[in-house]
Amino acid sequence: MRIVHIDSPPSVDELIERFGSRDLPFVLDSSLSNDGLGQWSFFGANPFLVFSGKDGDYVERSTSNVQHRTLNGDGLQLLRELMAKFSIENESGIPFVGGAVGFLAYDYGRQIEALPDQTLDDRDMPDIHFGFYDGIAALNHLTGELSLIALGLRADEDVVLEELRAIVTDSFTATDQTTPQRGGWEWNIERGDYLQAVEHVRSYIASGDVYQVNLSQRAKCRYEGCPIQLYQALRAGNPAPYSALIRSDAYTVLSTSPEQFLRKQGRQIETRPIKGTRPRGASVEENARNAEALGASEKDRA
Question: Active site residue: 85, 264, 275, 299, which one?
Answer without folding.
Answer: 275
